[in-house]
Design goal:
GO terms for molecular function: rRNA binding; structural constituent of ribosome. Keywords: Ribonucleoprotein, Ribosomal protein. Belongs to the universal ribosomal protein uL6 family. This protein is of the alpha+beta class. The chain has 2 domains: about 45 residues, no CATH class; about 80 residues, Ribosomal protein L6 (Outer Surface Protein A, domain 3). A hairpin with an 8-residue loop joins strand 6 and strand 7.
Length: about 160
């Protein structure tokens, strides 16, 4: 049976403006504006995707999204260096001399918390940028050529 019409609705707060033109969604709010484009390969499949992205963008504009990452090590302490506009540098991972660098995504704010030891906080209005940047940091510090059951180091 063919589906002729498919709809989903999103509740929009008063201080947020949404522009929808084709598969392009632009959400503007008091803190930032986010632009997303979704291709039109299968129209019915993109309805729920566009609905979910609009909902996540509204949540990102009203509330600031953040990821908390914690460095875990058994013997060699992992040292993280953050400078504005420069990459996040991870030093002394598994006692290696090599410095792992991950370039910051535009708009993502990265900071180290003082009360909690070895914890990174990544903040941004766009959930995809935050999760992508945290995944890149985690992938840069994966344990290679060792038994991962014993070497439980990383982020």
């Amino acid at each position: 049976m063919k589906v002729i019409l498919s709809r989903l609705s999103v509740n929009i707060p008063e201080n947020i403006n949404i522009t929808l033109k084709g598969c392009t969604v632009i959400v503007k709010g008091p803190r930032a504006s986010i632009y997303k484009w979704r291709g039109n390969r299968k129209e019915l499949a993109t309805v729920h995707t566009t609905h979910s992205h609009a909902h996540n963008m509204i949540k990102g504009i009203t509330l600031r999204l953040y990821h908390k990452m914690r460095s875990v090590y058994a013997h060699f302490p992992i040292h993280v260096v953050i400078q504005n506009g420069c990459p996040v540098e991870t030093e002394n991972f598994l006692g290696e001399k090599y410095i792992f660098r991950v370039w910051m995504r535009p708009g993502v704010a990265c900071s180290i918390t003082q009360p909690q030891k070895d914890e990174l906080i990544l903040e941004e209005s766009d959930s995809e940028l935050v999760s992508n940047f945290s995944a890149l940091i985690q992938q840069a510090t994966t344990v290679k050529n060792r038994d991962i059951r014993n070497f439980l180091n990383g982020f």
